[in-house]
Design goal:
single chain, Rossmann fold, globular, about 180 residues, alpha/beta, four-stranded parallel beta sheet, 9 helices
């Protein structure tokens, strides 16, 4: 059975890929690493939702316990229009590093469950980073399960976030139109 490291952004987003990968006969271990999430309280709620989900489905998870958005913010400063690509790279690079260190047969990410993410970019980056680290990127289009993740979160009583995670996505989601216009 192949061992796969699944980068996880939150519990609800894991609720479709984990059973889908297990159904393929893969041994899945989660990895929580998300320096983009802002503020700390949001990061903590997402981590706790994953802990709850993982305990219910007996999923082993490696948690990066550091809350360090400074690195993410430094990398995107004055590159805000490319922030998603920078964020993907930062998280996928770290996941590939952990996958190599843990002798995993491959790695993937729950980012692929969202209809709001740039799948082609994630796939391209994941494959390139996988080559660099010698750990294949397992691309799966998990988007058919997007709606199901919300249903699962509600059924399990899991916290479900209202924005991607970074300060900019929070502004895009909640700020008045004139504030959002300043991001462009």
């Amino acid at each position: 059975m192949a061992k796969i490291l699944l980068h996880i952004c939150c519990g609800p987003c894991a609720s479709y890929p984990v059973p889908a990968l297990r159904k393929e006969g893969l041994e899945v271990t989660g990895y929580f690493f998300n320096p983009n999430i802002h503020p700390y309280r949001e990061w903590l709620q997402r981590k706790q939702a994953l802990e709850e989900y993982a305990s219910r489905v007996e999923l082993k998870v490696i948690y990066d316990e550091k809350y360090n958005p400074q690195e993410y913010m430094q990398q995107i400063a004055f590159r805000e229009s490319r922030r998603c690509m920078i964020c993907y790279r930062l998280r996928l690079e770290q996941a590939a590093h952990i996958a190599r260190r843990g002798n995993f047969d491959g790695y993937t990410t729950t980012l692929l469950v969202s209809r709001h993410q740039q799948h082609d970019s994630i796939k391209e980056l994941g494959e390139a980073i996988g080559l660099k680290y010698g750990v294949p990127f397992l691309y799966r289009d998990f988007r058919p399960g997007f709606k199901q993740t919300g249903e699962t979160a509600r059924a399990m009583g899991l916290y479900r976030q209202q924005y991607c995670g970074c300060l900019y996505s929070e502004i895009e989601r909640f700020a008045p139109r004139e504030v959002r216009a300043l991001l462009k």
